[in-house]
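Re: Re: token formats

Sure, here are both.
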Amino acid sequence: MLDVVFGQASDPGKIRTNNEDSMGSFVPSSRHQARSHGYLFAVADGVGGMDLGEIASSTAVGVLVSEFEKSQPGAMLISLLPRLVQFANAAVHDCTLAPQYRGKKMATTVVACAMRYDQAIVSHVGDSRCYLVRNGVARQITQDHTWVNEQKKLGLITAEEIAESDMRHVLIRSLGPEMFVSPETNAITLQPGDVLVLCSDGLHDEMKREEIAAIVSQHKDMDQIAHELVARAVEVDGNDNTTAQVIRVRSVEQVGMYRGRPYRLPS
């Protein structure tokens, strides 16, 4: 059976008085629920420069967690998770129509990871990221939905130029502004010992992948590792809210799929 341990931490940073990042999780309460639903983790970062970023991010995470818990047992995660991101987008968009928020503009990024058996499905919108750390090496799973990253794909700007660009935080996709959004979704086959890191840009802007990998590969309590990641990013800069969820895979259950239904592989 899939077994994971996780830790999480968030810090408003040195400049801002409020924290517009949010995080949440669904942890199964039984072995049966671990197989019928699995785990869900999510990090959202309210977009600065708009109103009520903390409302946008907390709304998105709240919808993801509650709808995941209510989802049909055995639902295919590869199709379920992007659908839940759409639900979260609709909820944030609807917030702007509520009487107490009318006239306000709000948006948020989100990265969510659903895990079951030996699979992790990652769905995201914006520039909150997911890293997979395996054998001490970190690999970025998500691709930022930013203007500069699109320019990089076209060969018009280099990674070094992105790091110095004043436009690096300009999003081309986020939850809330439009009624519909297109999340990007990836599937990962998990191995025991893998570590997944979900984080806001307050962390990945200040830390290289090698440093993230070194910290999360330590044999420490997962909350301690998450706090160390966040503290290090804040120490480097601290101009932004910083959030991290760190999930370590202790064991997996290998399964095959037949007509959408899992079956155990012979040991």
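Second one below.
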Amino acid sequence: MNEATEKAATDQSLIDDGSKTDDLETMRPLPRISIQAFCESEEVLAVINRCAQDRRMTRAHLRVVNGDIETACTMFASSPTPNLVILENTKSADQLIEQLGDLADVCDATTKVVVIGYDNDVQLYRNLTRRGVSEYLVSPVSLSDIINVIASIFVDPDSEPLGRTVAFIGAKGGVGSSTIAHNCAWGISNLFETEVILADLDLAFGTANINFDQDPPQGIAEAVFSPERLDDVFLERLLSKCASHLSMLAAPSMLDRTYDFNRTSFEPILEAVQRTAPVAVLDVPHMWTEWTKSVLSEVDDVVVVAAPDLANLRNTKNLIDTLAKLRPNDKMARLVLNQVGMPKRPEIAVADFCEPLGIEASAIIPFDALLFGTASNSGRMIAETDAKAPVAETFAQLAHVLTGRVEVKGRKKSGLSGLRSLLARK
């Protein structure tokens, strides 16, 4: 193969990987099932381990074992079988068929089986499906191959599609993350005339009700503290209408109780809003707890809002690096730089701020105390206060980016060796 042919093949593989990533982004989370995978090669073992880290597998329990079908037979002879068994097979077709017969003797009738093999043989595939094998994959396999197969077995194809979830979090207190989240939610609902739910997750100090000039008697607190009641009808009762296509789950913003939550407290709410609206915007408070970490790891998109100073840069890098580990198969968190150009405040230049992060800012919002103050005090959004303001156009562009209608273009990196060395992480 010559150099040009090799490059074309590499380019095509990158295109294929990109399309597979896009497929994963639209996939429903897998249900609470148990899976055991038996791997003979390091390559398949690595792919299955990557699957275990994917956010779509959060509710599934995946156990990976170094071994073959014979290992599986020995193990299941004395222990219950899971919902799904994934088997890598390096032996001949005849040996595979024989060992699957032995496996059937020790497996529950309801257990599904997926085989990863190396023979691209239609006749073998037909023989396996006749014997009850759910799917046969020809190695090499990718992460999306595995997750798509599991989804095809356990996810109802007739289920309603789930809405897109976007979480906003500030890199530091006071950077305007809530204001950005509220304006983006309003912009998406207004520009595209699509139903949007804004969920204010800061139960103690949330400002969504103030920013939209609302005082609903119920809101997100009732959903969090009564998860057993949270169905579509109950959710509709808790929603407060903010605009033609925008509804809000308001925070009580009261200190009559403490709001200490466990890791899964907001899972029912996420599931409910995904079933109810095409887009859900989550206003996540600036804190690092088990439940905020869980929320940020499970949503479709994360937006980190930061101001251009050193503390924000450090925190933003920590957040983006951590989220990259929590969401290894998803796109990087997005960055919005807010309060840029504040008079008399020393700032880090936008290019210098972005360089050590390795990402482009999705939006740069200038400091405008009069416009933002007027909008906040009147309970209106920026575009409602002054539709011709440049900031209103910035929010419109950000709404396009967050709904996948346009993507941020790449940027040439500039030098900032001092901060890069300061913020370097091993």
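The chain has a mean pLDDT of 87. The two ends are 38 Å apart (CA to CA).
- S.
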